[in-house]
Design goal:
The structure is a single chain. It contains 19 helices and 18 strands. The protein is α/β, with parallel strands linked by helices. The strands form 5 sheets. It has a 7-stranded mixed beta sheet, with helices on both faces. Strands 3-4-18 form a 3-stranded mixed beta sheet. Helix 17 packs across helix 18. The radius of gyration is 22 Å and the shape is globular.
C-alpha cells in the first residue's frame, strides 16, 4: 500500500538517530505545520517500546500504520528495575495518544505526529511522586501500618491500610490491636501467610501473600489469568451507530466521560481522556475515603461532583447523567456498582451505545475476580517483588517496581480501549465494554522481557525532571506537576480545567456530546 502523503519517512520515525529530518504535517485546514523531533540527547527509537506499541494497537484494532507517525526516543533502562517499565510507559502512553490522533483524523482533522520520550514517559508513570503543592510535597499517602510483614512458616504478606476502614479491619482481624507496627508484626508471626491472606479477603480487606512467579502461575487465579490479553474490548449490546462529533479543535472535544474511580489507574485514564479534550465528570461520594494528593495529580482537566448512590435521589441523578454520557469509566471492585443497580447490562439498556470501561485488580474471571486489590498488592501476589529482589541480588529483601507501573499502564490501557471503542461504535454501532486488570497488565509487563543491567539506571529526583513540570492554579493551591508525555504535532495535549477538591461542581454536563446529539436530553 503506498505511503500516505502525510506519513513521516523512516528517518523521521527515528530509524536514523537523533538527527532525524524535519517533516511537514498538515497543521489545520489550509495550513501546514513544521514538526521537529525532540530526542533529549538519546537514541531516536526504543525498539522494544515500538514492538510493544504495535501489539497494543493490534489489540485495540487500530491500524498498524499509526506507528509510522510516532517517535519513541530513549534508551532503557530508564529506572532501576529488571523489567521493561520504560517500554511499558512509552508504549501505553503512545498508544492512547495515537488513538486520540486517529479519532481527530476521522473527524476531519489533520494527520499528525506523536512523540513520547522515554524519560518523560517514566516521569509521568511517577507523576504522584513529582507533584508539588505550593512548593511542598503533598501529605504522604502511605499509612504507617502499610507494607510487608513476615509471617510464621517463612512466608510474608503485604498490607494495604491507606484507607481507615481497611486499617481498622486489619487491627480487628488481628485481635483488636493498637495501631502500632510492632504489635502488628508480632501478631502476624502467629499466622501463615496464606491463611492470613484468605482471612483478610473474607473480611473484605486488602492483603497479598508474597509469591514468586512459579507460585502465582500455580495459583488458581494465576491459571485463570494465563493467556488473557491486557486489554479486552467487546460488543455487549445492540445500538445504532453513534457518529463522532463534527470536526473540533481537539480529538475528544464534544465527547463525555462519566468517571467513578479512585486512587491511581482509573483516575489516570480519566486524566488522559481529559488531556485530549473530553468533558470528564468525576463522581465520588462524601462517605468514601480518598487520598487528596492523588486527587490533585489526577484531577487535572476534570470537574468533580458528589452523589450518594445509597439514596434514591443520588441514583436517579446518576441515571440522568448516564443518558448523556459516551463513556462510563469505573474502577470499583467488580460487582460493587451492579449491586447498586448500575451493572453494565442495566446501563447499556438505559443508554444504548454506552461504552463501559472497567478496571479490576485480578481480572474479571477466576476465583479472585471480585477481590479487592491495589498495585502494590498485585505486584506482591503475582511475583514481581520476589523477582526484583532476585535480580538485584538481594533475594531476602522483596523489592517493588520503581513506580506503580501496573496502575499507570492500566490507566492508559483503559483510555486506549475507550477511544478504540468510540471508533468501533461510530462504524458498527453497539454498546461496548472495555476491561483491564492490574494483574493482566502485570502479566503483559512480564511478557515484555527483562533488562540485564536494569539496576544500573539512575533514580531521578525532582531536580532531574524539573523541565517536565508545569505550574497551574488549583482548588488546593499552586500545583507543579508533570506535563503529559505525549507530544502531538497538531493537537497538543493539555488540561483546561484546574484540579479541584472532590465535590466542587454540580453533577451536570456542561457541553454537548455525541451521546446527547444521538438521544433526546434526559427528562
Amino acid at each position: 500500500m503506498p505511503r500516505p502523503p502525510w506519513s513521516p519517512s523512516r528517518r523521521a520515525v527515528g530509524l536514523a538517530g537523533p538527527s532525524a529530518a524535519e517533516i511537514r504535517l498538515p497543521g489545520g485546514r489550509g495550513s501546514e505545520k513544521l514538526w521537529r523531533p525532540h530526542h533529549d540527547g538519546a537514541t531516536a527509537l526504543n525498539r522494544p517500546a515500538l514492538a510493544t506499541l504495535r501489539g497494543l494497537l493490534e489489540s485495540a484494532s487500530l491500524p498498524a500504520a499509526c506507528t509510522e507517525a510516532v517517535a519513541l526516543p530513549g534508551d532503557e533502562p530508564g529506572l532501576p528495575s529488571s523489567f521493561r517499565v520504560g517500554a511499558a510507559a512509552q508504549a501505553s502512553i503512545a498508544a492512547a495518544a495515537l488513538a486520540a490522533a486517529e479519532i481527530h483524523r476521522r473527524r476531519g482533522g489533520p494527520a499528525q505526529h506523536v512523540e513520547v520520550p522515554l524519560r518523560h514517559a517514566l516521569a509521568e508513570f511517577r507523576s504522584e511522586r513529582h507533584l508539588r503543592l505550593d512548593d511542598a510535597p503533598p501529605p504522604d499517602p502511605w499509612d504507617a501500618l502499610a507494607g510487608l510483614y513476615r509471617c510464621g512458616e517463612g512466608g510474608a504478606v503485604r498490607l494495604h491500610t491507606n484507607f481507615p476502614h481497611h486499617r481498622d479491619g486489619i487491627l480487628a482481624l488481628l485481635g483488636g490491636l493498637p495501631p502500632e507496627r510492632e504489635a502488628v508484626a508480632a501478631a502476624l508471626r502467629g499466622w501463615s501467610a496464606a491463611a492470613f491472606e484468605e482471612a483478610a479477603a473474607e473480611a473484605g480487606l486488602c492483603v497479598a501473600m508474597l509469591r514468586d512467579f512459579a507460585g502465582w502461575e500455580a495459583h488458581p487465579q494465576g491459571r485463570a489469568l494465563a493467556g488473557q490479553p491486557p486489554l479486552v474490548i467487546e460488543r455487549m449490546g445492540d445500538a445504532p451507530p453513534t457518529p463522532l462529533p463534527p470536526f473540533g479543535a481537539r480529538p475528544l472535544a464534544g465527547l463525555r466521560v462519566l468517571e467513578m474511580t479512585r486512587i491511581v489507574a482509573g483516575p489516570v485514564a480519566g486524566r488522559c481522556l481529559a488531556a485530549h479534550g473530553a468533558e470528564v465528570l468525576h463522581v465520588s461520594a462524601a462517605h468514601l475515603p480518598s487520598i487528596p494528593g492523588l486527587d490533585m495529580d489526577t484531577g487535572r482537566g476534570k470537574r468533580t461532583a458528589r452523589l450518594d448512590l445509597r439514596q434514591e435521589n443520588g441514583a436517579a441523578r446518576l441515571r440522568e447523567l448516564l443518558q448523556g454520557a459516551d463513556i462510563f469509566l469505573q474502577s470499583y471492585r467488580p460487582g460493587a456498582l451492579a449491586g447498586r443497580g448500575f451493572g453494565e447490562a442495566a446501563m447499556a439498556a438505559l443508554r444504548p451505545g454506552l461504552i463501559c470501561v472497567s478496571l479490576s485488580a485480578y481480572g474479571h474471571r477466576g476465583p479472585w475476580a471480585g477481590r479487592r486489590g491495589f498495585d502494590s498488592l498485585v505486584q506482591t501476589a503475582t511475583g514481581f517483588n520476589h523477582a526484583e529482589a532476585e535480580a538485584a541480588g538481594t533475594p531476602g529483601q522483596p523489592r517493588p517496581l520503581p513506580c506503580q507501573a501496573l496502575d499507570h499502564a492500566s490507566g492508559y490501557l483503559l483510555a486506549l480501549g475507550a477511544m478504540a471503542a468510540l471508533l468501533r461504535r461510530a462504524e458498527e454501532g453497539g454498546s461496548w465494554r472495555v476491561r483491564v486488570s492490574l494483574a493482566a497488565t502485570g502479566q503483559w509487563l512480564r511478557g515484555l522481557g527483562r533488562v540485564a543491567d536494569g539496576f544500573a539506571a539512575p533514580d531521578p529526583g525532582q531536580a532531574e525532571v524539573a523541565d517536565l513540570l508545569e505550574e497551574s492554579e488549583s482548588g488546593f493551591g499552586r500545583l507543579r506537576a508533570i506535563r503529559h508525555a505525549a507530544r502531538m504535532s497538531a493537537t497538543p495535549a493539555r488540561w483546561e480545567a484546574p484540579a479541584m477538591p472532590l465535590g466542587s461542581h454540580e453533577a451536570a454536563w456542561i457541553g454537548g456530546g455525541a451521546a446527547s446529539s444521538a438521544r433526546p436530553p434526559p427528562g
